Structure formats: C-alpha cells, structure tokens
Automatic annotation (TrEMBL):
Native organism taxonomy: Bacteria, Pseudomonadati, Pseudomonadota, Alphaproteobacteria, Hyphomicrobiales
UniProt KW keywords: FAD, Flavoprotein
Start and end residues of each FAD-binding PCMH-type domain: 1-181
Pfam families: FAD_binding_4
Gene Ontology MF term list: catalytic activity; FAD binding
Name assigned to this protein: FAD-binding PCMH-type domain-containing protein
Family annotation (InterPro entries): FAD-bd_PCMH, FAD-bd_PCMH-like_sf, FAD-bd_PCMH_sub2, FAD-linked_Oxase-like_C, Oxid_FAD_bind_N
C-alpha cells in the first residue's frame, strides 16, 4: 500500500490528480486515532494530512481560530487555553474507547463533527465551524466560508464537510469560532434515580432558565456504585451559586444533591471511559431525550447491554457483546419503534463489514447522498465505503 503525505495544499491537489489518473482508492488520515470508525477500509493507499500542520489564524478579540487540518488538536487547545478560550463543543478523544494511539488532529474534529457533552448548550462542532479549505476528487482546491458567521443560501459546503468522514475531500484547513473559558464549573449530582426519573430531572433542569452545559445519567453499577444524575453549570462563581440554589429548589422532589467540582468527571463521560478496554461492541444512539429510557428498556428485553445517557437522555452510549451482529437487529428495531438512529462505533472488523455501521438511509436520501458524493468525488476515490457501501 502506498502513502501520500503532502506538505501544502498545492502538493495535496497534485497528489490527488495523480492518484485519480491511476484510479487509486485513498484512505484519508490525520493522526489516525479514528481509523476504526466506520466500515473497514477499502483503499489501496493512504493520503495523510499530517504534513499540513500549523495555526494560520488566531484572533482572540474576534474569537476565531484557523489551523491546517493536520495540526494536533492539543496544540490548538493549548493556544486557546493560554488566552482563556476554548472550542465550545468539547470534542471527544476517541483513543481510550478505540484503543488507538497517535494525536487527534484539528481537521478530524470537522471531518466527523466531533461534539461532546456541551453540545446541548453550545451546539455541535458544525455549528461553530465557519470556514473550510479542502481538495476535492478532481484535485481542485476549494475554499468555503471565512472568519465570520453568515447566513448562506444554496449549498453550504462548510456544513456539508462537517461529518462527511473524509468521503468528499481532503480537508486542508478549518476555521472555528471559540468561546471564553468559564470562571467556574460545578456539577449538581443526584444519586439513586432510575433512568426514567433521572431523565425527568434532566428535562426539568434543561427546561429551566438556569442554563446547563452538561446533562448526563450513569445508571447503578456503571462507573462504580450508585446511579448518578449529573447537571453541569458554568459561568461566574456568584452566578453559579445562585443557579445551584434555584435548581435545588426546582428539583427538590428528586432528592438532595451534592455539588462536585472535579475536573475529570465530564471528560470520562465525553470519552466513554466506562466502556474503554472491555472488548465489547459500543453503539451511539440518538433519540428524543424523553424516549431514551424506553429505548434502552426495549433493547434490554432482547439482549444483555449496559448504557449511560448524555445530552439530557438524547444520546445513549450502549455496550453489547461483539459476537454475531453485535445486537444490530434488536437495536435497530428498537430505534425504529422509538425514533432516532444508531451508529456502531466500536466492533471487530468482520462485524463492521457485515452490519450497517451508520443508520441505513431511505432510498431517496441515499440517492441524494450518492449525488453529492459524485459531485465532489466523481471517481469515488476518497474513503470508499467508509460510511455506506458504494459511497
């Protein structure tokens, strides 16, 4: 298998044209920490963004940062932290869950729309992504967006590239809006609630004016001990004290919570640490928050599973046995009944080759997806089959 590692965008475009002329099928990589996301590779060579590194723009007053796609994510985060700023959407580090090594890259954040617990408050990565540069399947360098948010009519290439998993082009540079770091972070923790009551409590808190930036529930026995229902608040210290007091009054029927200010609590939830290193299959289920408990109950009636909730119940991390179809038939039936979609995040290659990894598309939507792929990558050379067969 060959490897391409361009040093700049022009060189990347030339390499893509050369590979296209040979009919090569390319696996796009950055730090390669997410190689086992999606269906198994069907490529002949790799095209790496590792050499496309460096921060190209940082304007703290405008709260904008841009960097080439291969720039280590940690480098960008360190630059922002030095000015008390951060990426709003709290991107997940997949290394613990997938057992991978290397360094996550800035471009990959956009490529998979990598969004953590703060999504309920700040939106997804794509909501902060305001500019991209990429090389399409014709070897053309494309620029879309810029340094400011603006309304767009027609095809929004910035949002289209977010979550495309490298199937449409090689990202060479991405630009994000950033936010200030909060003075204080505190988490209200209720213990002993079952799933349904926990989601009721989270829904009541999220529906209040007290602005949660995290809302999760860990059932009993998961990650140690009693069930814990977690509500994160961020902001100025005096305002946090007021909001904590108001939430205690609002949620009094759910018990007497404690306040925790541990720094690593939400990183464990974000990075799915409770399921790291188990060897089991891991699914990521999205549904309406109030339907989360019914969804997991339906799955548990047909196969052994463990789970926890993020995004107020709307995101379910689910662990099942990795044998057979890793529970795909039961999980997709339950998702169909409750509404939502399911993504197989971790499983052996043989399972990911046999089972749809992403939620299967209805025929009309599949045709649209195939049309978009053909428009940007007419030869189907980038990450072929990574998301869906033939795409």
């Amino acid at each position: 298998m060959g490897s391409y590692e361009p040093r700049d965008e022009d060189e990347a475009a030339g390499m893509v044209r050369e590979a296209a002329a040979r009919g090569a099928r390319l696996r796009l990589v950055g730090g390669d920490t997410k190689a086992r996301l999606g269906r198994p590779p069907q490529d002949e060579a790799t095209l790496s963004a590792r050499g496309l590194a460096g921060i190209t723009l940082y304007e703290p007053a405008e709260m904008v940062v841009a960097a080439r796609a291969g720039t280590p994510l940690a480098e960008v985060q360190a630059l922002l932290a030095a000015r008390n700023q951060m990426l709003p959407f709290e991107p997940m580090d997949h290394r613990a869950l997938l057992g991978s090594t290397g360094k996550p890259t800035f471009g990959a954040v956009a490529a998979i729309n990598n969004s953590g617990p703060r999504r309920i408050n700040a939106g997804a990565a794509r909501d902060s992504l305001i500019g991209v540069r990429f090389v399409n399947g014709r070897g053309e360098a494309i620029k879309s967006g810029g340094r400011v948010m603006k309304n767009v009519t027609g095809l929004d290439l910035v949002k289209l590239m977010a979550g495309s998993y490298g199937t449409l082009g090689l990202l060479t540079e991405v630009t994000f809006k950033v936010l200030p770091v909060s003075e204080r972070v505190a988490t209200l923790v209720f213990t002993g609630l079952d799933d349904a009551r926990a989601v009721d409590a989270l829904s009541a808190a999220l529906g209040s004016p007290f602005e949660l930036t995290g809302a999760a529930h860990l059932p009993a026995g998961l990650d140690g001990g009693e069930a814990r229902t977690l509500m994160r608040l961020e902001g100025f210290s005096d305002a946090i004290d007021y909001r904590l007091g108001e939430l205690r009054r609002l949620l009094g029927r759910f018990g007497a919570p404690e306040v925790v200010e541990a720094a690593d609590l939400w990183a464990r939830i974000r990075d799915v640490v409770p399921f790291a290193g188990t060897g089991a299959a891991v699914w990521r289920l999205s549904t309406a928050p109030t339907r989360g408990p019914a969804l997991t109950a339906a799955i548990a009636r047909t196969l052994p599973a463990r789970w926890y909730y993020d995004w107020g119940g709307g995101l379910v991390w689910l662990e099942t046995a990795a044998e057979g179809d890793a529970g795909a038939a039961a999980i997709r039936a339950a998702v169909k009944a409750q509404g939502g979609h399911a993504t197989l995040v971790r499983a052996p290659d043989a399972v990911r080759a046999a089972v749809p990894v992403f939620e299967p598309l209805a025929e009309p939507l599949l045709r649209v997806t195939q049309g978009i792929k053909a428009a940007h990558d007419p030869a189907g050379m980038f990450n072929p089959g990574r998301m869906y067969p033939g795409v």
